[in-house]
Amino acid sequence: MASKASVDSREPVNEQAIANIYAAMRSDINQLYSKITELEIEISEHSLVIGAIQPLDPSRRCYRMVGGVLVERTIKEVLPAVQRNKEGLEEVIARLNEALEKKKKEIEEFELKHKIKIRRADSEAKDDSNHKEGSAQGVLVGPANE
C-alpha cells in the first residue's frame, strides 16, 4: 500500500493534472523561445555597433552605457568589450538552444506517454476562414459609378 502511494505522488492522477503539467511544459518552451529571440536581437545590435565603430580611428572618443551610466572611452577600449559581450551572448544562446531541445524531447515523451493529441492551428484557421466567408456573403456592394 505504501509503494502505491509513492507512485501516485510522482504520476499525475487525473486528466486535469496532466493538462496542467503539459501547459507548464509548453509555457517553459515558449519562455525559452522568447529569451532566445531577445538575445538574438541583442547580438544583432552588438553587430551593428561593431560594424559602425570598427573602421573608425581607435583613438577616437566614444560613449558606452555601463550600468545605466554613460561613460566616455576610446574606440580602442570599447570595441574589444563589445566583441566579448557579443561572444558571451552567443554562448548563452547556444546553451538555451540545448535546453530548448531537451525540453522539446521531454514534452514529446510526455505526449506519447499520456497520449496527448493537439489540434493544429491549420484546421482551426480553415474553420475560421469558412465562417468569415459565409458571413461576408451577405454584404451587397453597388457599382462604383452610382
UniProtKB/TrEMBL annotation:
Domain of life: Eukaryota
Region (Disordered): 120-146
Keyword Disulfide bond: no
One Pfam family per UniProt: Prefoldin_2
Parts forming coiled coils: 79-120
GO BP term, pick one: protein folding
GO cellular component terms listed in the entry, alphabetical order: prefoldin complex
TM segment ranges: none
Membership in a protein family: Belongs to the prefoldin subunit beta family.
Protein known as: Probable prefoldin subunit 2
UniProt source species: Phoenix dactylifera (Date palm)
Native organism taxonomy: Eukaryota, Viridiplantae, Streptophyta, Embryophyta, Tracheophyta
Gene: LOC103697004
